[in-house]
Design a protein that fits this description.
This protein is mainly β and 174 residues long. The protein has a single domain (8-172), classed as YEATS domain (Immunoglobulin-like, Sandwich). The chain has 3 helices and 8 strands, in the order βαββββββαβα. The strands form 2 sheets. It has a 4-stranded antiparallel beta sheet. The protein has a 4-stranded antiparallel beta sheet with strand order 4-3-6-7, with no helix packed on it. The longest helix has 9 residues, at 24-32. The chain is elongated. It starts with 7 loop residues before the first strand and ends with a helix. Bound molecules: ligand SLL. Its main location: nucleus. Keywords: Activator, Chromatin regulator, Coiled coil, Cytoplasm, DNA damage, DNA repair, Nucleus, Transcription, Transcription regulation.
Amino acid sequence: RVRVRGISIHRPIIYGNTAVVLTQQEREALRREGKESHTHRWTVAVRSAASKPDSGIVGGADDISTYIKRVNFKLHETYPTPNRVVDAPGPFEITETGWGEFDVFIRITFIPESGEKPHSFYHHLKLHPWNETNEPEIPPLEEAIRAGPVHAWQYDEVVFNEPYNNFLQTLTAH
Ligand code: SLL
């Protein structure tokens, strides 16, 4: 296989999380599982940056599993089996409940024919709404419920420089 000189392919992705405050019923159900401290449900994800209009979902319209083989989400060690693995075709996301913010270590592994090294980065899992004063204070839950879901997403571009010819075909076939 040969690299195609002078070509670089960009694929827009987003990564991040959405979080909502648990309802009273959800909190009671979790209390029975011994998770009485849990206050939020969150989803951390890696998705295509393209959104389906009116879907209410952040991103995810294109199939990034054409070039991504696996995404690892390493959660805080207070979670059982913190290293969560999602294989293609995804969706590359993890939904959990919890009580605190922390840094999620995310590793994207590309399909083998890409010849690319994995791409790793952190995402700060955000649960609490930003406040006007910008102070890192945890607001009361009633205030967080009023504020609605928290969205914390970053745009990024995966760049394949001088891709292998067969991989270039895979990338441009979609
Ligand atoms: C903090 N540095 O102290 C952070 C850690 C960890 C949050 C937050 C796990 C829930 C469980 C969970 O929410 N961990 O215990 O199952 O704020």
